[in-house]
Amino acid sequence: MDFRIAETFTDSLARLTGDEQKAVKTTAFDQQVNPANPGMSFHKLDKARDKNFWSVRVSLDIRLIVHRTTQSFLLCFVGHHDDAYDWAERRKIEIHPNTGAVQIVEIRERVEEITIPKYVEHQPRGLTSAPLFAAVADGDLLSWGVPPEWLPDVRATAKMGCWH
């Protein structure tokens, strides 16, 4: 089984106190040596959208978030109980279809307001409002690392005035 460490794990580890970091490192080492250790308190995260996210108890309050499959074990994040669970519930791991890179993708929720369109009689000459990426093909956006499910959002929110 491959044992991996994500940047998000090392970044979150740095935000903990020295004693908390020591406990996390001990737990992570124990996981690497024996991933099937019966003494580890594993808990599958039911609310996570990625069903391979698990929580490992480090202490009464500190939780280690791991992505566990039959082939790999990835340390993803560490934090206080609620923060760690919230982090896992808003993310999933996927392989980008064009680049082949493994990505930790934040799941974004969309809140839409119902708006009443305001019609403008005329617009200043030469100024148009067009999507910034209107002329860029989906394949190009994907090759830049944009996750496929973000394509509509990238196009919809990237509007700005352009002079022609």
Task: Give an account of the 3D structure.
The protein is of the alpha+beta class. It has 2 domains: 105 residues, RelE-like (YaeB-like fold); 37 residues, no CATH class. The chain contains 5 helices and 9 strands. The protein has a 5-stranded mixed β-sheet with strand order 1-5-4-3-2. Strands 6-7 form a two-stranded antiparallel ribbon. The chain has a two-stranded antiparallel ribbon with strand order 8-9. Strand 2 and strand 3 form a beta hairpin. The N and C termini lie far apart (56 Å). The C terminus is likely disordered.
Note the main attributes of this structure.
164 residues, alpha+beta, YaeB-like fold, five-stranded mixed β-sheet, two-stranded antiparallel sheet, disordered C terminus
